[in-house]
């Protein structure tokens, strides 16, 4: 049976239990359990951790502990019966354990290890405390250590401060708030309180008598490891003060044998001393431990001959020192001894022995020798504190070792009665002796004896040092050969007091011979008596004694013989008539000095003091003796305090009339002497005397009389020093009076009681009289009053011995009441008055309730006055807190209603006023500068707050009732309520108490909520109906809102244990206040409208508090507000606007959550259902709920470590909501700027610009003034819009989106023009022009686009189940993008298929990401179809302003034909339309619409072939125009892919699939499409033919076999197509004239002429690095619209650089013909990176320029069909490509080419037939073998007449057919060159099987030096490697030499045009480098281009390659274009002829 337990209630788990049985409770080791029932070895109960779960567990797993059970039964509570500190340690360790592990996780490793150490210490200390084996002192010490560690840990972990008293946690209910505040303060200032705070607080007004704590050094000599001496030694330790240069302690002596051990075997381990009675002041002195080592042995240590071995002398050896300052820190911290080694230094010169320690300390190293080894004296030190009794008690072990107590020379700070001491310290100072006829100086030894009056030598009266017994004779150490020895040795003479009088000292001087006998010869003596004749002792001074001659035979038996002689000079002066015939003659030349110091409690050296003590001997001198007492030193007085006091009272009794006043004055003098800080600690001596030794029973009468007499005279006397002294001595005078009266009463059984009482009352009347005097006129009177007030409170305790509490209280009240009430007396007097009151309140008298009732009114009256005037606030607060502390203590025992009532009446209002003043000061940072620091202000605030709270806490219902009833009018009540609400609000706003003062903060909240409950009824009663007062109500609501929002009340963030503790004690105070707030709101009635919309924000803040109950109470108030506004205005617009505004700021501050959103919607919709305005209400609540959704998402993104993308998406979402759904312009603009900042941070400059544009569009070009907003100043709308436009333009520029910036530039230009602001207009136009240049010149990467689907409910609201298209970053591929998205959503799963997800995925609680690349579909097709638009411009429109994107997915419909899969290969084409076009305000936008189209296999085939044709055309065009820098690989692969695929099945597969009769009959509707496919195939053959021709021209000799293979395969392909496409042979290049309509395009333009083909592949570098500015027409643009679309790409993914194309995976739509056989990417990538994707100059213009020289001057311009449109309408040369980059390292190898001449083959290093001279060869190795050779036409050299450059075309024409191929170009010569105009080329081409070169159309380009030898014959010329072969006169004219900047006319009709120096970089040319002017003037430097810095060798504006050190730049010229008429027909025929040969 289970039975309830009686004793077994509480236990600790000592073994973990897994709870494996039914109903088993899982328990961890160390958990505590509460036991409810037991049954046969099992318990049933709960774990304290989880009190709700009950279960059973084995009894033997539990260690039982004693506990107190309260409320027995079902709901009983159990508290363990153990020390509260242990309980606290247990709870704290459990709390720390959790936080400690978190430290590790958060990488706070340092704190982690520190805390672990502290926790281990706590566990250890707790174990000690529980062991129960400690003494009380040890328990106290352990508790101190525990609390220090607990507080340290709490502080470092950010936990709450624990207020303690005596190491135990205080209960805030048991003490006043003021005391609690002080405990917090002291806990904060120091975690090491060892005494109760309250006790120390009480003593703050005037320190009570506190004994100073003496310090003691325990020194123990462990060993002396100097065995080198080999003799016995004496070691003397003493304390030495360096500053004063003297020893301050006796010496401690250790006698050691020659082995270094103690001479006395019993002393082993007992060589220790205690240097006692060092004061705190001594500890601050520069003290050293000095050890002198004296050896006892021969005269000279190393000379055995000197002196016989049996004679031993004391000889100086060495000295060691240790600075106490250096070791004090280390020995203070530890409680045990610490060892130190002292090196022993030896003295170099014995004469300086007395100073050796000083020399060592001063480090005068020449005067001593350091030891050879490091060993020396090993000592241990320990510092002890406390009086000797305590030391003996606490350290019994030390005293058991026989420690030698070594005292200070002189008295300790405190001499207690009964402390008897009588020591005379004698120092042997020095002597001066005659040589006595000897050749060397003497070795002098002094022997001293103490002799009594009768000549007897006193035994044991000489002590060399503590630690050794006293002796009868003293022998000094001997200084070798020294007639003027200095000893400086201190000897203590402990002579018994009764033997002191009549004793004298005798010093005998001997010379110690070192001869064989070694006897000591006496040669003189000196003596001195110890007492003078007048009874005073030998003074503390140096005494120079007379030396008398004598010898060994002299007898001292009759000491009277010499005692009659003068011992010193003073003595001699005293007795001049000394007979000279005495036995002893004084040696006048010899002297001997000693000094003495007396430390005696019985002997004095003062004559006046002696006279007073023996006053009866001089009865007639008594008056004089009493008068002279003032001149006796304080030390003498305190030494003989008891004797003096006894004497004084005896004198008083002897003759009261005569001596009364003098004795009174002497008494006052002595009492005041004890007030001196030096003698302050003698007061206990005085107290002891009064209690135990005082016997003057009659003294009280005379003392009262004198005191009254003094007071009564204070009004008339001018000098009042003696009166003030009497006032200061009041306390002890009263002690004497009261003790005297008690003694008298005892003796007479209480006689004369009435007389005594009346005399005291009269005395009090005199006191009142003194205090009531107006002291403003007299400063001395002020001091008298101050002295009286200071002493006054000290007499209460004495009076209480004689009078009742009420009587004393009445005395005091009368006295305090007699003080003037005004506060203008003068500040000092105010302070004194208040201090007196403070001491009164702190006195024992005030703790009696009966006295408090009498005294409180007068005390409060004075405080009230001071607070009213804001004076002496700190003292007043101290008094108040003392009063509250006493009242709190009393309230626990009895009734204090009356006292509290008094305080409420007097203080409440003035306290509030004071607090308001202080708070406003501290808020305005005024903190009374100079007078008080801000910290003091904070302290004062804290003090007064605690006082106010104490008062409010003591108030009960009745007090509040009285308070509210006592207000005369409603205005007064209103003022009071406003004050108290304001103070409470400030309390919460200013957080007067630090965050970790949780106890204080909670108590404050509790008092506030209680007070508010009392006051709210008064508010409701008085200010609701007709007397409604908005101000008071508003104040109330603000207070309630602040209260509920207090951080300290947000229990959700607290630990469970803390939450439970708070809820148990106070409940949830937020709920209490919320109920109060709600009921008050309901009470308002129709006045609610006054608080709309003002209170919406605050109430919203309250509802966002995460407390369900508070939310349930408060949310319905919004319905109420809507209802009231609806009633009043017919709508609730204000509520709506305010709610939305405030919601935004509150949610962004971190308030609110998903539950709140649901609850808000639920509660309000429920309420609105019943209303007439439900529709508007519901829509409003819905939109607020949706706003909250977005705000919460936004906050979560911002708060977390979310990625930029998420944050930006969130912000866009929220911004759009503000604009579109709730139309809040200001919020919308705020979020525009937040979004812009995020873009800037992520460096999305284009997006940032678009974002700002949104704000810009809201503004007009008007002069309307705008207020200050965000970071904008107040300015006009025009100015703001202008500033925004400039900023947006700047961002577009940084984002390289110049096309978007240009319209804005224009808009600004219109504005500037309309205002005639030409300066700005000029600036903006230049900016616009720069942007056009940038578009043409700067490299821009085309981004990829990715479609991302976010599926699943786990995504944030704004992403959930939506799809977006995202603009990728530069260089970002699909894999990288996918990785980025997955890292942004780490929980997400990537979907591997592109199909649309089903519902199960959409609704699941997970995150799915679906990502694939999409192709942009540009809107601006027009630009892209225009022939003449450069590709650089087109590329922008291909990827910007895009709203539609395409994605193709291949699939098979019907059965898949294994033989030919193309038959069934369909394409599913998805077109996505976005909400906004990209780029925009975000990098991604949501998909608005999806369209799905299926493309049939035939349509697919058409598109594929068309795309491939387009790609080929583009590529071929680029090679013809030299945009591909000579690396032919790309073309090789492309051709190989198409031709190989066609041969092995590519086009052939289409033929099989769609030209099949079967297919045609089955699909009659496809006839037109089939025809289209055929035409495209025919076109492909054409294009391939041209491609091969270009390939032939560029292919590198090593790649010839590949070319050969391609040619062969091409023939096969053509022939295979003949069968399917009859008439294809007609289309071959051989039959040029008769082609199909489509092929006519090719023929009419000449196959692949530069002007006919300018199709740019999207991935080509051309596209990226800027295009050539010349018109281009597509192959088919004139005749076929079907092939006109240049944007169709072979590949649906988008790449930024040429090389990207090589890496691309074919997407599903890339089913190109060549896909099956395309070359591997490794092969493509074989060229180094510099070869791929680097900008190059188009070769097209190389010949254009050369030809210009060879054409007739005045001809009509040829049509663009024949000539490239290189010449613009304005006659400007075209824009050439910028950089000519080095392609490969090292020059090309020579090729074995049949067309090369012998001369060319003979030069291996530079195979080019017209290369530069060898000097420039290294600078730019140009193209490697892998890059095909650049073909250029050799030009025969000509001698031209000066200035004439026109040649006939014919002269040049006939060479074209057999020109040798050009080899790689070298670098250009560094020199300023004149530009040469370009000319159209004459394109001719031949393509035949015998590798004849293709020349003409493709070999155009820069006029580089490689072909600058401008003329050659039809035969290849001989090799010329130097420039010397160039006929310089052809170029270098005199005109050139003089004016290098003047234009050169190239035709007779050319006008003089000089372009301005600020040239357009894209419009100039460099001349051939054959032009070498001798004059090399530096032209102005040109600005570098953005991408120049990356190139190893720079190229200047004209396309010249420049080395880094190039200084000379070509001149920029406008060159008028010669109009050339060419042999057009001839050229065309030649071109066609070339092709037909194949």
In short:
With 2038 residues, the protein is of the alpha+beta class. The protein is 43% helix and 13% strand. The chain contains 68 helices and 41 strands.
Set down the secondary structure blueprint:
Layout: E1 3-4, E2 10-13, E3 32-39, E4 42-47, E5 54-58, E6 62-65, E7 67-70, E8 77-80, H1 84-105, H2 109-131, H3 136-156, E9 164-165, E10 168-169, H4 177-189, H5 197-202, E11 215-224, E12 232-241, E13 246-247, E14 252-256, E15 272-278, H6 280-284, E16 287-297, E17 313-323, H7 324-333, E18 338-343, E19 345-347, H8 356-362, E20 368-369, E21 376-385, H9 388-394, H10 396-400, E22 404-406, E23 422-432, E24 444-451, E25 473-475, E26 486-493, H11 497-500, E27 504-512, E28 520-529, E29 542-549, H12 560-563, H13 569-574, E30 586-600, H14 607-613, H15 622-628, H16 634-639, H17 641-654, H18 656-673, H19 683-693, H20 699-712, H21 721-728, H22 730-748, H23 753-772, H24 779-791, H25 796-802, H26 805-817, H27 827-842, H28 849-868, H29 873-893, H30 897-923, H31 934-954, H32 957-965, H33 970-990, H34 998-1023, H35 1030-1044, H36 1056-1066, H37 1069-1084, H38 1096-1103, H39 1108-1114, H40 1116-1129, H41 1133-1148, H42 1154-1168, H43 1174-1199, H44 1204-1221, H45 1225-1241, H46 1245-1258, E31 1265-1266, E32 1275-1276, H47 1277-1294, H48 1298-1314, ...
Parallel strand pairs: 15-22, 35-36
Antiparallel strand pairs: 1-3, 2-3, 2-6, 3-4, 4-5, 7-8, 9-10, 11-15, 11-21, 12-13, 12-14, 12-16, 16-17, 17-19, 18-21, 19-20, 23-26, 23-30, 24-25, 24-27, 27-28, 28-29, 29-30, 31-32, 33-34, 33-36, 34-39, 36-37, 37-38, 38-39, 40-41
Helix pairs in contact: 1-2, 1-3, 2-3, 4-31, 14-15, 15-18, 17-18, 18-21, 20-22, 20-23, 21-24, 22-25, 23-26, 24-27, 26-28, 27-29, 28-29, 28-30, 29-31, 30-31, 30-33, 33-34, 33-35, 34-35, 34-37, 35-37, 35-38, 37-39, 38-39, 38-41, 40-41, 41-43, 42-43, 43-44, 44-45, 45-46, 46-47, 47-48, 48-49, 54-55, ...
């Amino acid at each position: 049976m289970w039975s309830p337990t009686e004793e077994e209630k509480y236990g600790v788990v000592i073994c973990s239990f897994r709870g494996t049985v039914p109903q088993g409770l899982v328990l961890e080791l160390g958990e505590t359990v509460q036991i409810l029932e037991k049954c046969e070895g099992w318990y049933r109960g709960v774990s304290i951790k989880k009190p709700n779960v009950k279960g059973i567990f084995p009894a033997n797993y539990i260690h039982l502990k004693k506990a107190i059970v309260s409320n027995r039964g079902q709901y009983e509570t159990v508290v363990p019966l153990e020390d509260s500190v242990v309980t606290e340690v247990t709870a704290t360790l459990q709390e720390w354990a959790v936080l400690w592990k978190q430290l590790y996780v958060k990488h706070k490793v340092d704190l982690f290890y520190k805390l672990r150490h502290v926790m281990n210490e706590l566990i250890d200390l707790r174990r000690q405390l529980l062991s129960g084996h400690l003494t009380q002192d040890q328990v106290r010490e352990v508790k101190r250590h525990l609390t220090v560690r607990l507080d340290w840990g709490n502080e470092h972990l950010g936990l709450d401060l624990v207020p303690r008293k005596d190491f135990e946690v205080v209960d805030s209910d048991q003490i006043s708030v003021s005391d609690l505040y002080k405990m917090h303060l002291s806990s904060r200032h120091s975690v090491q309180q060892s005494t109760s705070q309250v006790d120390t607080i009480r003593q703050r007004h005037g320190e009570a008598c506190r004994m100073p704590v003496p310090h003691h050094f325990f020194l123990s000599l462990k060993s002396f490891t100097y065995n080198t001496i080999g003799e016995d030694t004496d070691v003397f330790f003493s304390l030495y003060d360096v500053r004063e240069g003297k020893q301050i302690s006796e010496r401690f002596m250790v006698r050691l044998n020659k082995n270094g051990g103690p001479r006395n075997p019993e002393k082993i381990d007992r060589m220790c001393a205690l240097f006692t009675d060092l004061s705190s002041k001594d500890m601050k002195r520069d003290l050293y431990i000095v050890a002198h080592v004296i050896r006892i042995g021969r005269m000279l240590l190393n000379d055995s001959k000197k002196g016989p071995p049996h004679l031993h002398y004391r000889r100086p050896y060495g000295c060691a020192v240790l600075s106490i300052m250096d070791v004090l820190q280390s020995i203070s911290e530890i409680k045990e001894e610490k060892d130190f080694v002292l090196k022993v230094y030896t003295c170099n010169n014995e004469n300086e022995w007395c100073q050796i320690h000083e020399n060592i300390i001063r480090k005068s190293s020449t005067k001593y020798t350091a030891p050879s080894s490091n060993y020396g004296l090993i000592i241990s030190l320990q510092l002890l504190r406390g009086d000797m009794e305590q030391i003996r008690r606490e350290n019994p072990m030390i005293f058991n070792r026989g420690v030698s107590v070594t005292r200070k020379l002189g008295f300790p700070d405190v001499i207690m009665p009964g402390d008897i001491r009588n020591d005379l310290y004698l120092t042997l100072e020095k002597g001066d002796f005659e040589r006595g006829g000897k050749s060397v100086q003497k070795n002098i030894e002094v022997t001293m004896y103490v002799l009594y009056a009768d000549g007897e030598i006193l035994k044991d009266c000489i002590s060399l040092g503590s630690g050794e017994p006293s002796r009868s004779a003293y022998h000094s150490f001997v200084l070798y050969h020294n007639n003027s020895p200095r000893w400086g040795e201190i000897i203590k003479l402990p002579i018994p007091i009764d033997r002191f009088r009549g004793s004298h000292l005798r010093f005998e001087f001997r010379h110690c011979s070192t001869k064989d006998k070694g006897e000591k010869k006496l040669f003189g003596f000196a003596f001195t008596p110890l007492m003078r004749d007048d009874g005073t002792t030998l003074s503390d001074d140096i005494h120079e004694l007379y030396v008398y001659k004598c010898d060994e035979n002299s007898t001292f038996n009759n000491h009277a013989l010499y005692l009659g002689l003068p011992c010193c000079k003073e003595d001699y002066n005293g007795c001049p008539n000394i007979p000279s015939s005495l036995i002893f003659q004084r040696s006048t030349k010899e002297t001997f000095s000693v000094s003495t110091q007396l430390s005696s409690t019985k002997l004095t050296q003062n004559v006046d003091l002696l006279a007073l003590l023996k006053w009866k001997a001089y009865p007639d001198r008594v008056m004089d003796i009493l008068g002279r007492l003032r001149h006796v030193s304080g030390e003498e007085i305190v030494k003989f305090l008891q004797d003096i006091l006894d004497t004084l009272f005896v004198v008083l009794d002897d003759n009261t009339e005569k001596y009364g006043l003098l004795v009174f004055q002497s008494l006052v003098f002595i009492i005041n002497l004890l007030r001196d800080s030096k003698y302050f600690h003698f007061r206990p001596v005085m107290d002891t005397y009064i209690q135990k030794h005082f016997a003057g029973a009659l003294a009280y009468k005379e003392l009262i009389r004198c005191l009254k007499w003094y007071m009564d005279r204070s009004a008339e006397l001018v000098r009042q020093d003696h009166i003030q002294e009497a006032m200061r001595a009041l306390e002890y005078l009263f002690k004497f009076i009261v003790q005297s009266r008690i003694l008298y009463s005892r003796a007479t059984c209480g006689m004369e009681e009435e007389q005594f009482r009346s005399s005291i009352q009269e005395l009090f009347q005199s006191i009142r009289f003194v205090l009531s005097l107006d002291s403003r006129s007299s400063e001395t009177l002020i001091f008298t009053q101050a002295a009286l007030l200071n002493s006054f409170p000290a007499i209460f305790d004495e009076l209480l011995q004689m009078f009742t509490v009420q009587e004393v209280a009445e005395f005091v009240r009368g006295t305090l009441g007699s003080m003037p009430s005004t506060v203008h007396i003068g500040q000092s007097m105010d302070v004194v008055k208040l201090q007196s009151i403070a001491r009164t309140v702190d006195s024992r008298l005030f703790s009696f309730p009966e006295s408090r009732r009498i005294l409180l009114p007068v005390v409060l009256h004075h405080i009230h006055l001071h607070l009213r005037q804001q004076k002496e606030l700190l003292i007043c607060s101290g008094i108040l807190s003392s009063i509250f502390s006493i009242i709190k203590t009393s309230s626990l025992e009895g009734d204090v209603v009356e006292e509290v009532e008094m305080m409420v009446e007097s203080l409440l209002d003035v306290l509030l006023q004071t607090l308001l003043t202080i708070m406003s000061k501290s808020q305005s940072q005024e903190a009374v500068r100079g007078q008080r620091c801000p910290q003091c202000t904070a302290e004062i605030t804290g003090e007064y707050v605690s006082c106010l709270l104490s008062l409010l806490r003591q108030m009960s219902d009745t007090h509040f009732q009285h308070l509210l009833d006592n207000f005369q009018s409603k205005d007064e009540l209103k003022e009071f309520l406003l004050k108290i609400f304001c103070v409470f609000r400030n309390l919460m706003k200013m957080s007067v108490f630090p965050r970790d003062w949780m106890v204080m903060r909670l108590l404050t909240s509790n008092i506030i909520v209680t007070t508010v409950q009392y006051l709210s009824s008064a508010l409701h009663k008085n200010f609701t109906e007709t007397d409604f007062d908005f101000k008071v109500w508003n104040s109330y609501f603000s207070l309630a809102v602040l209260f509920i929002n207090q951080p300290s009340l947000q229990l959700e963030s607290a630990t469970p244990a803390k939450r439970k503790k708070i809820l148990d004690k106070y409940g949830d105070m937020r709920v209490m206040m919320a109920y109060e707030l709600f009921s008050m709101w309901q009470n308002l009635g129709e006045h609610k409208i006054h608080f709309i919309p003002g209170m919406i924000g605050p109430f919203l803040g309250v509802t966002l508090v995460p407390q369900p109950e508070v939310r349930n109470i408060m949310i319905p108030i919004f319905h109420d507000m809507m209802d009231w506004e609806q009633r009043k205005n017919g709508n609730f617009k204000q509520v709506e606007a305010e709610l939305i505004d405030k919601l935004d700021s509150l949610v962004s501050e971190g308030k609110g959550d998903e539950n709140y959103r649901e609850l808000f919607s639920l509660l309000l919709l429920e309420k609105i259902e019943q209303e007439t305005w439900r529709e508007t209400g519901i829509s409003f609540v819905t939109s607020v709920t949706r706003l909250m959704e977005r705000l919460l998402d936004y906050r979560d993104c911002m708060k977390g470590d979310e990625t930029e993308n998420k944050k930006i998406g969130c912000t866009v979402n929220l911004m759009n909501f503000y604009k579109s759904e709730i139309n809040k312009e200001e919020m919308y603009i705020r979020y525009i700027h937040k979004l812009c900042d995020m873009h800037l941070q992520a460096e999305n400059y284009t997006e940032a610009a678009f974002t700002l544009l949104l704000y810009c569009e809201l503004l007009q070009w008007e002069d309307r003034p705008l207020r200050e907003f965000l970071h904008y100043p107040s300015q006009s709308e025009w100015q703001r819009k202008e500033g925004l436009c400039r900023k947006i333009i700047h961002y577009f520029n940084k984002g390289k989106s110049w096309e978007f910036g240009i319209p804005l530039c224009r808009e600004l230009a219109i504005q500037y023009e309309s205002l005639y602001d030409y300066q700005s207009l000029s600036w903006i136009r230049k900016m616009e022009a720069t942007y056009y240049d940038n578009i043409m010149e700067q490299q821009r990467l085309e981004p990829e686009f990715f479609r991302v689907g976010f599926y699943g409910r786990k995504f944030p609201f704004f992403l959930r189940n939506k799809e977006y298209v995202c603009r990728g970053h530069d260089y970002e591929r699909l894999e990288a993008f996918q990785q980025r998205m997955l890292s942004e959503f780490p929980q997400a799963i990537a979907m591997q298929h592109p199909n649309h997800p089903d519902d199960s995925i959409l609704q699941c609680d997970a995150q799915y990401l679906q990502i694939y690349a999409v192709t942009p579909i540009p809107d601006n097709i027009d630009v892209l179809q225009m022939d003449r638009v450069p590709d650089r411009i087109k590329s922008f429109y291909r990827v910007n302003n895009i709203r539609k994107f395409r994605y193709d997915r291949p699939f098979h419909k019907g059965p898949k034909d294994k033989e030919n899969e193309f038959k069934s290969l369909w394409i599913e084409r998805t077109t996505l339309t976005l909400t906004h076009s990209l780029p925009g305000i975000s990098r991604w936008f949501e998909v608005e619409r999806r369209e799905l189209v299926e493309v049939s296999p035939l349509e697919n085939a058409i598109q594929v072939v068309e795309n491939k044709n387009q790609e080929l055309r583009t590529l071929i065009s680029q090679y013809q125009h030299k945009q591909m820098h000579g690396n032919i690989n790309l073309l090789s692969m492309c051709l190989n892919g198409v031709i190989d695929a066609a041969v092995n099945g590519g086009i052939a597969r289409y033929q099989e699939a769609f030209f099949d009769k079967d297919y045609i009959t089955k699909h009659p509707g496809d006839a037109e499409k089939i025809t289209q496919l055929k035409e495209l195939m025919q076109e492909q053959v054409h294009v391939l033919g041209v491609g091969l021709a270009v390939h032939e021209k560029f292919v590198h000799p090593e790649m010839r076999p590949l070319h050969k293979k391609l040619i062969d395969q091409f023939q096969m392909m053509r022939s295979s197509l003949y069968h399917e496409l009859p008439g294809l042979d007609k289309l071959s290049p051989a039959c040029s004239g008769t082609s199909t309509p489509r092929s006519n395009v090719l023929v009419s333009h000449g196959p692949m002429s530069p002007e006919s083909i300018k199709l740019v592949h999207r991935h080509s570098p051309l596209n990226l690095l800027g295009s050539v500015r010349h018109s281009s027409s597509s192959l088919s643009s004139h005749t076929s619209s079907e092939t006109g679309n240049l944007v169709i790409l072979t590949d649906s993914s988008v790449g930024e650089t040429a090389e990207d194309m090589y890496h691309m995976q074919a997407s599903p739509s890339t089913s190109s013909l060549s896909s099956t056989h395309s070359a591997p990417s490794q092969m493509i990538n074989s060229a180094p990176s510099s070869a791929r994707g680097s900008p190059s100059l188009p070769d097209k213009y190389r010949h254009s320029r050369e030809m210009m020289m060879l054409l007739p001057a005045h001809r009509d311009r040829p049509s663009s069909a024949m000539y490239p449109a290189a010449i613009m309408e304005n006659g400007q040369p075209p824009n050439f490509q910028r950089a000519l980059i080095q392609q490969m390292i090292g020059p090309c190898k020579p090729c074995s080419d049949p067309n090369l001449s012998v001369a060319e083959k003979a030069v291996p290093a530079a195979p080019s037939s017209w290369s530069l001279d060898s000097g420039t060869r290294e600078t730019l190795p140009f193209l490697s073998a892998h890059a095909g050779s650049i073909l250029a036409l050799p030009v025969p050299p000509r001698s031209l007449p000066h200035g004439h450059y026109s040649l006939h075309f014919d002269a040049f024409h006939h060479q074209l057919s057999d020109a040798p191929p050009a080899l790689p170009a070298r670098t250009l010569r560094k020199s300023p060159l004149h530009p040469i105009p370009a000319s159209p080329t004459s394109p001719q081409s031949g393509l035949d099987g015998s590798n004849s070169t293709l020349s003409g159309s493709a070999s155009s380009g820069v006029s580089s030096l490689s072909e600058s030898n401008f003329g050659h014959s039809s035969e290849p010329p001989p090799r010329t490697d130097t420039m010397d072969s160039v006929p310089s006169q052809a170029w270098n004219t005199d005109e050139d030499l003089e004016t290098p900047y003047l234009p050169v006319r190239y035709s007779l009709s050319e006008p003089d045009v000089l372009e301005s120096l600020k040239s357009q970089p894209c419009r100039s040319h460099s001349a051939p480098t054959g032009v070498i002017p001798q004059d090399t003037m530096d032209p102005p430097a040109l600005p570098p281009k953005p991408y120049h810095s990356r190139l190893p060798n720079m190229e200047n504006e004209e396309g010249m390659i420049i080395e880094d050190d190039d200084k000379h730049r070509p001149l920029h010229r406008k060159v008028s274009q010669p109009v050339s008429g060419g042999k057009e027909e001839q050229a065309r025929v030649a071109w066609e002829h070339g092709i037909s040969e194949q």
